[in-house]
Structure formats: C-alpha cells, structure tokens
Amino acid sequence: MSTVVSDCFTIGSIVATRTCYNEDIEGEVLAFDPQTKMLILKCPSSSGNPKRHDVNIVNLSLVSDVQIKKEVTTVPEPPRSINLHRLNTRVRNAIENKKRLVSALSACLDPEGQRLFLAIARVIDDVSWTGQSIRVYNEVTITPPYKVENVIGEQESKPYNYIRKFVERHWKEHRDHAAANSSRHQ
C-alpha cells in the first residue's frame, strides 16, 4: 500500500486550506481522492477536547489556497484493523439498551416517573420498573410520586444514599427549570 495519496499529499502531512467561504482548515492528511479532489483532514477538536479530533472533508475544487505546512517523509504505520466483533457487540448492546428503555417507559404512564427513570438510566444501567416503582441496583426502590421521601432501601447503604441524593438533585433541577420557564413567560 502506497502512503503517497497523490503527487501533492502524503498521509500524515500537515496541510492548510482556505475555502471559498474564507474559512481556514488546517490538519493532518488522512486520505485524498484525486478523482473527486476530496481531501480528508484530521483537525484539532472544535470542542477543545485534546482526546478527540474533527475530521473535515475538503473539496479542493472549492478552495482558494492550499499549502503544505509539513511534509511527512517517513512511512506512517498502517492503520489498525477494525475489531468487527467488538463493534458488533457495541451495536447489539446499544440496541438492547434502547429496547429496554422503550419497554420500561411503556410500563409507567406517569410523566414524572418516566422523566426520573430516564435521568437515572442515563447514568446507571441497572434500573428497571417493578409495577409503578423504579428499582435501582436491585436494592433501592422509588415509589410514586417519585420524591426523595419515596426512596426506599437500606438507609446506611451507599446505593440508597446515592439514589436519594440523585432524586433530590433531579427534583431541584426540575423546580429550577420550571421557575426559569415561568419567569420567562410573565
């Protein structure tokens, strides 16, 4: 496999482009298709997270300037192969989780209960419905109307205290949000 993607670009080189909208895009060359004149660049994350990257696809027929900032002369390592088994497992787990949430939400018609259930399910996988009650870690139960005083479990346990604080924070955020909305509509 050749690391040179065209006469101009080598994988791993740093390239700066200016688009027809006067937007500057600079990044590392991941790939280039000479037929379509599409250049794929790995750029620093727009979110500022150093562990993530943005990938920009640049149509070179729509740029006003292209400069090679740093030419790579060493052969880069071949890309790692994709672990399809792990990827399929992640997809299956995500689908199962969504199905579980949908069936769990259909178990309760109370919108407040559904809202609390979804909030818990975002951070804890071990959450389910037992009748109209929310069951967390198979240790803590939250009964209607799903307030702090409706949290039932072993009061000295970490899960009980965590869920109690979670429910308290959930209702405080809900009150704050409702108050903000009502003050906007006055």
From TrEMBL:
Q: Cross-referenced Pfam families, in alphabetical order?
A: AD (PF09793), LSM12_LSM (PF21166)
State the source organism's domain of life. Eukaryota
InterPro entries in alphabetical order? AD (IPR047574), Lsm12-like (IPR039683), LSM12_ABD (IPR019181), LSM12_LSM (IPR048478)
Residue ranges of every copy of the AD domain listed in the record: 80-175
Q: What is this protein called?
A: AD domain-containing protein
